[in-house]
Amino acid sequence: MPSVSIHVLSPAVAPAEAYRRISDFARYPELTRTVESVVVLPPAADGTVLSEWTVHFRNGLLKWSERDSFHPEQLAISFEQVTGDFAEFSGDWLIEADGEGTLVRFLADFDLGIPTLAAILDPVAEAALRTNIVTILEGLLGDAQEIVVEPETADSARS
To answer: Shortest CA distance to 32 belongs to which of 6, 56, 5?
Structure first.
């Protein structure tokens, strides 16, 4: 299954504040034209939240609902698609201190569910996801920049 690992450094925002901003999914459409809408539903009894996403992709829209689990004590958010256009979509937001600033890691696995076109669509989807996440984080955190991490390091960071 394809995966994407995005690391963004924000030197001026503290980790707890970065987590608070990233957790506010409803603001994402304000930060990039690619995110058409995000509807965040009230929390379930177990503390998870359902969010409904509509995102521009190529010449159309991708729509999905995901279950989000917030872990403020670990500065982490996990998500997993419940229904929608992906065959599978899940991942994590991980926020940690880096000097006086913050390192944000967005890690996701996805499957568009079209095996015959995977060689063409998967790289396009990964690039679109990378661009959107970096744009969102720039909007949320201000002076934020993507940093390149070797694939072995990125994969081990998820374990």
So the answer is: 56
Q: Is the pTM of this model over 0.85?
A: yes
How far apart (Å, rounded) are the C-alpha atoms in residues 106 and 104? 7
> For the chain, how far is it from start to end, CA to CA, in angstroms?
16
Question: Could you tell me how many residues make up the chain?
Answer: 159
Distance (Å, rounded) from C-alpha 36 to C-alpha 54?
5
pLDDT tens, residue by residue, 81-94: 999 999 999 999 99
- Nearest CA to 139 out of 6, 53, 10, 5 is that of 10
**Could you tell me the domains of the chain?**
3-158 (3.30.530.20)
Q: Which residues contact 25 (CB under 8 A, 6 or more apart)?
A: 38, 40, 51, 68
Question: Which residues make beta-bridge pairs with 128?
Answer: none
CA 117 to chain CA mean position, Å: 23
